[in-house]
Every structure is written in structure tokens, then in C-alpha cells.
Amino acid sequence: MAANLLKAGFSLTVYNRTAAKAQDFVSRGARLALTPAEAANGASIVIGMLADDTASREVWTGKDGALEGVGRGTILIESSTVSPSWICELAGLAEQHGTVLLDAPVTGSRMQAGAGQLSFLVGGGDRALEAALPVLKAMSKEIVHLGPVGSGAKMKLINNFLCGVQVASLAEGLAWIERSGLDRDKALSILRTGAPGSPLLGAISERMVNQNYVVNFLLKLMTKDLKYAQEEAEQYNVDLTTARVARNLFEAAVAKGLGDKDMASVIEPIRAR
Predict the structure, then answer these.
(1) Active-site residue, selected from the candidate residues 154, 156, 220, 261
(2) Residue 131 · residue 104 · CB < 8 Å
(3) Domain check: are 82 and 137 in the same one?
(4) pTM surpassing 0.90?
(5) What region, left, alpha or beta, does residue 249 occupy, with left being phi > 0 and alpha being psi -120 to 50 degrees?
(6) Per residue in 207-220, pLDDT tens?
(7) Nearest of 54, 135, 53 to residue 102 by alpha carbon
(8) Residue 74 confidence (pLDDT)
(9) What is the per-residue pLDDT for 86?
(10) Is residue 138 located within the same domain as residue 170?
(11) Structural domains counted in the chain
(12) d(CA 96, CA 35)
């Protein structure tokens, strides 16, 4: 995402909690900040992309947090997959600082981010979104305005809930195929081209078969997303029973030390049973 902003000609300051991860962007022309507050100082738009509620809260509101550095009228964009309750709290804090928040999580993983082909799921006001469009367009193929602040976070959790359940189901189905004596390639061809087929099933099944767990989407982040999805759905008296089962499988994979690998590795504890 940062590389695409630089490619589009934006003046960019970067901050990462692990400073070494930001160095590549410095070599491409970005300025390195030592704190979130320093990164936000003087910026017209500040974008957060972090792991979870805890990391987002720390970077926005912790010691030398970004909110300490923002000027009045700055547009804040939170693109992390976080809980709607935190987004609403952050929106209130932004207002107290004379700024406005867009929640704009993305769909797409490493490949889409690199190609500038993400989809932004946006919640927030029309004027703020209009002002932020040039920046968002530099990183995306699609920008969908879903409603007020929090709408993007809700939609992202629904999206990832469905993805997590499908990946967990695929892991069980593929383990079943492998033990059943069926020709695995033929069986997967039927699934990929039939009713269960989807871009996700195609990509993940290939990684599972090849045991290629180079990270496109961290397994531990999907575990977190399923937890947030369950908690959010409970606010509407919806019990995500399938999320509960899928989350159990992901948590078992985390317990086996697979949390920092691609989410396709969720199949490995099932294979080992």
C-alpha cells in the first residue's frame, strides 16, 4: 500500500512498530518517523494498517500516538480489521481532536495490495471520503461507501467470517479426500469448477496441496477476525455457530505454532490427527 502511494507521487511519511520493516520505503523516497505522532505531524491524511484493536489503540492513542500529532481538519483512515466498537470509540476521539475518521478496511491480500488492486469498504462521511479518494484510488480497484462510520468494519468482519469458515471447511474436506483414496487432483478439480468453487477455494487449496505457507494472510489474524465476528454478531442476537467451529480449528493451528504462517496451514493439525 505504501509503495503504491509513493508510485502515485504522494509525499509519504511512514512509521512501523518494527522500524526495520519501514526501511524499504525510505529507500523509495518516504520519510521515516520514529513515533506515530511524528508520522502524523503535518499530514493531511493519516492511514493506519495494524493487526488488531490493541495495536490500533496503541498507535493512535498510546504514548506519542498519532492523535497527538494530527492537526485540525486532518482525515484519519483506519484500514485495519478491527472491531466496530473500537472504530466508534476512535471516531469520537478523532472528533475531539478536530479531525474526522473514515473506517476503510480492505479486501484482498498481499498480491492485491502489491498490485494496487485492493477493495476499500468505507464507513464515514461523504465529504471526508471525497477528499480521500485520490489516496484510496492509488491503492485500489474499488471503493465501496457502505454508510456511516463503523459500516466498513462490520462488512469486513462479515467478509472474513465467510472466508474463515470456507478455509476451515476446505481443510477438513481436503484431509478427507487425502485419506479416502480418491484422486486428489481430480477431486479438487471438481470442487474448484463446481458449486463450491471460488477464487478463495482455488488459491487456498493449491497452497494446502503444496504445503506452501508463505504468508498471504496470517493464520493468527484470521483467528482474531473470527473472534471479532462472533462478538459483533452477538450484538444482533446472531450466534455464528460455524464461526465457532472454524475458530476452534484455527486456534488448534495457532497452538501448534502455525500462527505466523499463511492461514492455509490450518490443515496441518487436521492432517496430523
Answers:
(1) 156
(2) no
(3) yes
(4) yes
(5) alpha
(6) 999 999 999 999 99
(7) 135
(8) 98
(9) 98
(10) no
(11) 2
(12) 21
